[in-house]
Amino acid sequence: MDINSILFPVLSIGGLGLVFGAGLGYAGKVFAVEEDPRIGEVTDCLPGANCGGCGYPGCGGLAAAIVAGTAPVNACPVGGAKSALAVSEVMGVVAEEKEREVAFVKCHGTCDVSASKYTYAGIDDCGMASQLAGGGAKGCSFGCLGLGSCVKACAFDAIHIENGVAVVDDEKCVSCGKCAKACPKDLIIMVPASKNTRVACNSKDAGKVVMSNCSVGCISCKICEKNCKFDAIHVIDNIAVIDYTKCKDCGVCAMKCPKNVIENPKIKAMKEKKAAEAAEAAKNAPKETEETKTEE
Prior knowledge:
Elements: H1 3-30, H2 37-45, H3 58-68, H4 80-91, E1 101-105, H5 126-129, H6 149-153, E2 159-162, E3 165-168, H7 178-182, E4 188-192, E5 198-199, H8 207-213, H9 223-227, E6 233-236, E7 239-242, H10 252-256, E8 262-263, H11 265-284, H12 290-295
Helix pairs in contact: 2-3, 2-4
């Protein structure tokens, strides 16, 4: 075989590669879009979680939006005040203080207090289960299905299933909101971390229906509403709703709630202490005997 018949094609292909490479390199320089160096600086100020909790595609996407002026410097819920301060220094602006929020599951219908319509034996996915008859096996169609879709969505180990209901660890929650997006029942909301008074029910059913499905559900009695001095809680669509811009976290609504639907750590501890004292008093009370009855 003639060596020229091999060498020529090789040299031709190599030559074409050099030409095209040079052309692409030139085009890259001509049509290059210069990136604002602040994007990289802002990205370095962010935590790098790439969780999407800010509403943008990762930390790089948020950084580009901040530099473009379409997102505030405190838009990262994971980085919080620390990241906001660092970003504000890069951007040369003052970061507005933003109160930390945490996820809260509006349901306390654990396995021992809520009814079930049937036994679910499918895939552990709340979205799948909610498509079944009645919105799932739980008696309350608004309640937590307890299959852990929110747990799988959380990258920070801040939410777990306890006795059939999702529970958030406030200390670990970074306010990314991914658990809320994963819940097909829309019962996970973001609340101010500083507020301890929260309504642990999501049912919009009438009181009679609620009581047949769950012993700790809101029966829309409006006792909380009538006792709030700050106009901070109202029953809307058969469920108590707190306006945190008005709430003083006094706990009166939690104290007055006959179903213990409104939670507040201090009030809960107070109620438990009173219940324990009452039980102890009943235990130590003198029992009526037959002799006592005869004397009477």
